[in-house]
Design goal:
This protein is mainly alpha-helical. It has helices spanning about 1-10, 20-60, 65-70, 70-75, 90-105, 110-120, 125-135, 140-150, 155-165, 165-180, 190-195, 200-215, 225-240, 250-260, 270-275, 285-290, 300-305, 325-355, 360-370, 375-390, 395-400, 415-440, 445-450, 455-485, 490-495, 500-510, 515-540, and strands at about 310, 315. The chain starts with a helix and ends in a 9-residue tail after the last helix.
């Protein structure tokens, strides 16, 4: 029977002779495409305004690119160092840091790096700032001795012939002959010969040439190299005395004479220069911090958001007097729940009254409910500061009627009490409106029927009326809780030190300390907390029971 039906369906055709099944499938695809086009603007808006910021926040919360981008040579050199050895890195690592830091200082990036690492270890910001001012003098002792050996070593042309490719020298000469300021000088190119014969010198000189061209808008053919370049040349010639064999002519002779002389140079190490600049470079903790945060991604922001940190011994909690974020998370949750319940206690009777009044009277009172929306949030919060202060209106009234003495005025501002009072007033309409819309749909005949069967007023309300308002309670509670957990203006103005939320700290890190990574981690954890609250709420109440009318 089924085979016969299937064959019959396949044989059916439309008026133009096409199979009916194929035509129906094509029509269904068109409907789906039209539906997709209709929702495309809204979908695009949600992706841009909601999904993209969340993805960016998640990325920033683990991003740590500033360390490997600012100290690439140091990060590579640290791979060979064991932070658990109890010893400082060898001179090769210090030399790599010297080369990285002199480039970063020229580009004004060392202060940003210090600020980033200061989040992990106090004092790193001042350490990098202080060293950055002196790092261009590192290796000066070698510069003077190379100059005494042969004045050609301070000539830019000597270094260009030693380091640049023949193609770049030709292209640069043609560019200089054109004398056209609108055309940029060709980007400097290090020769393969220099990389093989003088690897350290080639690497730091490439950085020097890049900074001269991009930051100073000058040419390597006109600038003497930095002191660290001479220090790198000394290291290369000590390790490879036959470096001159890679060259020919006058360059080879100059390099050969230098290689023969450097064993007699008065020398110092990069480690000694760093420790002389600041003794903290001799601290193992500094280098262990650099080693822990040398990767492009880190869990450090999340650990900080949980009042923990990664040390040489593993993850540890910060000292108790420095733990603030877990306390703020707990306070945010508790006060948000308190605000939600206070809005419910105040809003339920108001919504009940509005739903049972004649339409004309209910609309008039509804205007009063919505009236706060016509006033700025900042103005409403500032008004509460006037009302709640110890010499404010509320305390004056309490003193006048004799409930409190003049010396025992209540502390209602700059604490959690002020936050709860002000935010309850601000968020109360968001509880009343869903409750009112649900209560208006409840037929009074249910309560009358219960009373006719012998139920008391309380029994009729609690057993019949209240369960039907649960969807409105759920909707209002969700709205108020979500709004309150993310508020930061009102707690900032009236909360003081004991009434601020975690959102205040997020705002601080975004606008003041500029620690966006920590702000993103705190925001992500707050999002996780909200989602967990939703899951718990769904288990206890059920999202299906939430209605807005």
């Amino acid at each position: 029977m089924s085979d016969t039906t299937s064959n019959t369906a396949e044989k059916l055709t439309t008026s133009d002779g096409k199979p009916l099944k194929a035509s129906l499938a094509k029509a269904l695809r068109r409907q789906k495409m039209r539906a997709l086009l209709l929702i495309a603007p809204l979908l695009l808006f949600v992706l841009i305004s909601f999904a993209a910021p969340i993805i960016d926040m998640l990325f920033r919360s683990v991003q740590n690119e500033i360390v490997p981008e600012t100290l690439p040579r140091t990060v590579t050199a640290l791979e060979s160092w064991d932070p658990a050895s109890g010893e400082l890195p060898d001179n090769f690592v210090f030399a790599a840091l010297r080369d990285d830091l002199v480039i970063a200082a020229e580009r004004k990036q060392h202060t940003r790096l210090g600020s980033r690492l200061n989040y992990e270890m106090t004092g790193m910001s001042s350490l990098f700032r202080k060293t950055g001012r002196r790092v261009d003098d590192f290796g000066e002792i070698f510069t003077e001795q190379f100059e005494d050996l042969n004045e050609a070593w301070v000539e830019p042309a000597t270094w260009v012939s030693l380091m640049a490719t023949e193609d770049w020298i030709t292209a640069q000469a043609e560019w200089a002959a054109e004398d056209d300021d609108s055309v940029a000088e060709p980007a400097f190119e290090i020769s393969e010969t220099a990389k093989e014969a003088l690897p350290r010198t080639a690497e730091i000189y490439a950085g020097f040439a890049d900074v001269i061209q991009t930051e100073d808008q000058d040419s390597p053919t006109e600038e003497e190299p930095w002191n660290p370049v001479y220090a790198a040349l000394y290291d290369d010639l000590i390790e490879n005395p036959d470096a001159a064999s890679f060259y020919s002519g006058a360059t080879a002779e100059l390099l050969a004479s230098a290689a023969a002389a450097v064993p007699d140079f008065e020398a110092t190490t990069a480690r000694e220069e760093f420790i002389d600049a600041d003794e903290d470079w001799g601290s193992l903790d500094v280098w262990q911090t650099l080693d822990r945060f040398k990767g492009r991604y880190t869990a450090g922001y999340y650990l900080a958001a949980l009042d923990a940190k990664r040390t040489a011994d593993g993850i540890e909690m910060v000292p108790e007097e420095q733990r603030i974020y877990l306390l703020l998370f707990m306070r945010t949750l508790i006060l948000s729940v308190v605000i939600t319940f206070s809005c419910l206690l105040l809003g339920y009777p108001i919504a009940f009254l509005l739903s049972h009044l004649p339409l004309r009277s209910a609309n008039l009172l509804m205007i009063l409910v919505l009236l706060p929306f016509w006033t700025s949030l900042l103005v409403r919060t500032s008004a509460w500061k006037v009302l709640l202060q110890q010499q404010g209106v509320i305390n004056d009234i309490l003193v006048f009627i004799g409930l409190v003495s003049d010396d025992g005025r209540l502390a209602l501002i700059n604490n959690a009490t002020g936050t709860v009072i002000a935010m309850t007033h601000i968020l109360l309409p968001f509880m009343i409106l869903p409750l009112y819309s649900v209560m208006k749909t409840i037929s009074p005949s249910y309560v009358r029927a219960a009373k006719s069967l012998g139920a008391t007023d309380w029994t009729a309300f609690w057993r019949i009326y209240f369960p039907q308002t649960v969807p409105g309670i759920g909707a209002g509670a969700v709205l108020v809780f979500i709004l309150s957990i993310g508020y930061y203006i009102t707690p900032e103005l009236v909360g003081g030190t004991s009434g601020t939320f975690i959102s205040n700290r997020i705002a601080y890190h975004i606008s003041s300390s500029l620690n966006w990574g920590l702000a993103a981690a705190l925001g992500t954890l707050l999002l996780v907390v909200v989602l967990l609250c939703f899951v718990i709420y769904d288990k206890l109440v059920g999202i299906d029971n939430v209605k807005l009318g």
